[in-house]
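Help needed: design a sequence for this.
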């Protein structure tokens, strides 16, 4: 069901883009560059696991093609290949000295529709939206303090996730964000806030498994520098 929803959204996005391309003013602007920023991650667990945001690195390469201008809207597509740190940071209200963190390192590839408004040379505001896939390349755990203190204080606390190997290394979901871009003769400078909603569970979620949901998610703030290869 999740896969069908994702496929439908992708089809709508790129079909709409193709229809615009037939009636808009054509552009042939291809740009490449680098991006970097910070993830603020939480995992959607069912049953619930108390967490606070886990900060991680998000950095990589960006390629963008602007294909047309449709009235005041500049339309294109953007592809990124990023190294991204996800995971979760568990929070225990009554035992703050006990700490558990799981960091999961992914190679992530967002496929984005890019819609912008503003001057073609100057300031623009944009929306990026589309599907994203990811491949887990490594993960690590860090624990401080005595977890028995947490269990003694709250016997029903969920610890099934601690030390549990990752079952599914392929991740997918939907990502989208808004931002601003300054286009100059020295290149294009972008800042963006983005949200990722994971559709895949990294722990098995059959009826016999403990978790029915274990999906990545969170906000990201990033900056990008692009230079035009063709205009």
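Sure. Designed sequence:
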């Amino acid at each position: 069901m999740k896969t069908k929803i994702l496929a439908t959204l992708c089809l709508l996005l790129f079909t709409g883009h193709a229809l615009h391309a037939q009636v808009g003013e054509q552009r042939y602007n291809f740009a490449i560059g680098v991006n970097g920023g910070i993830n603020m991650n939480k995992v959607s667990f069912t049953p619930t696991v108390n967490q606070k945001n886990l900060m991680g690195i998000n950095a990589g390469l960006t390629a963008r093609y602007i294909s047309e201008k449709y009235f005041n809207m500049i339309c294109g597509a953007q592809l990124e290949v990023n190294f991204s740190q996800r995971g979760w940071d568990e929070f225990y209200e009554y035992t703050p000295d006990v700490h558990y963190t799981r960091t999961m390192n992914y190679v992530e590839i967002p496929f984005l529709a890019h819609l912008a408004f503003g001057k073609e040379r100057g300031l623009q505001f944009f929306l990026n939206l589309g599907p994203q896939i990811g491949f887990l390349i490594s993960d690590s755990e860090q624990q401080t303090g005595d977890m028995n203190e947490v269990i003694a204080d709250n016997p029903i606390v969920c610890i099934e996730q601690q030390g549990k190997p990752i079952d599914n290394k392929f991740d997918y979901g939907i990502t989208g964000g808004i931002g601003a871009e300054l286009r100059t003769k020295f290149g294009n400078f972008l800042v963006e806030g983005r949200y990722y909603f994971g559709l895949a569970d990294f722990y098995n979620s059959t009826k016999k498994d403990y978790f029915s949901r274990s999906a990545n998610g969170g906000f990201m703030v990033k900056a990008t520098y692009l230079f035009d290869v063709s205009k």
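The helical segments are 2-23, 147-153.
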